[in-house]
Amino acid sequence: MRKLAFIFISVITLVACNKDQDTSIIYGYQYFPVDTGKYVVYDVIDILHDDISGVHDTDYYQIKEVMGEEDIDLEGEPFHKLYRYKRESDTLLWQLKDVWVVKKSNSSVEVVEENKRVIRMAFSISYDQYWDCNAFNSDDPEQCYYRDIYKPKLVGTINYDSTVVVESNDFLSFIEYKRSYDVYAANVGRIQMVYKDLEIDNEDTLDVQKGVELYYTAIDFGG
Q1: Is residue 37 part of a domain?
Q2: What does the DSSP assignment read for 153-202?
Q3: CA-CA distances (angstroms) from residue 217 to 92, 166, 170?
Q4: Closest CA to 142 of 109, 112, 120, 174
Q5: What CA–CA distance (Å, rounded) separates 42 from 60?
Q6: Number of C-beta neighbours around residue 177 at 10 A
Q7: Is residue 118 part of a domain?
Q8: Rounded Cα distance, 29 and 151, in Å
Q9: Gyration radius of the chain over CA positions
């Protein structure tokens, strides 16, 4: 009888342990590292459309983002400055473009970009995670969600072992096309960004009348 009781208790304990393992949460903090000195360099394609004026200008340049040291804000919470440098295609000199603020917590990553606070990631990373990236600014609500979680991906000329995609906008109408998403790699950060806000004709995304397109592709990282 004691032997049967011991077996029963052992089985219950094993089931409980397996249950704990199955429900363990992988938060995914490594997809937005904030270690001081970490950097990513991007090739950028910046396109402006204005068909009425006959303008379809494309600008090529590079952006380098460098994570600064940790500091404490007025609320007593930690944050990092994100130094952003720009280099034109015809020069080797980096010039400081702007300084953003990154606030990473156990639940999210908030980035203050040009005085606008945006929620770039929400934790934990999962297929049922949804959030409004504009919850802390005056822009229209924009629901974000994850796809292609923890999958390898080739971005530009670099292969990454594990990436996640944050979808933020995919809207198409007869006269408007909005498309935006970011790709993040483990222990690197953002490696790709696609942003399109276009006025189109007859639901044809190639017949652009007005708007902007912006593409970031990581070409180097370290720190």
Answers
A1: yes
A2: EEETTEEEEEEEEEEEEEEE-SSEEEEEEEEEETTTEEEEEEEEEEEEET
A3: 19, 15, 20
A4: 120
A5: 11
A6: 21
A7: yes
A8: 16
A9: 22
Residue 12: strand, helix, or coil: helix
Answer yes or no: is 98 within a domain: yes
Give CA–CA dist 50/53, Å, rounded.
6
Query: pLDDT tens, 79-110?
Result: 999 999 999 977 889 999 999 999 999 999 99
pLDDT of residue 180: 97
The domain that holds 210 is classified in CATH as: 2.40.360
Domain tally, the chain? 1
Cα 166 to Cα 147: distance, rounded to the nearest angstrom: 7
Domain span at residue 48?
30-222
pLDDT of residue 145: 98
Between the alpha carbon of residue 187 and those of residues 31, 93, 104, 200, the distances in Å are: 6, 27, 15, 38
DSSP state of 97: E
Q: Report pTM.
A: 0.86
Any domain includes 6: no
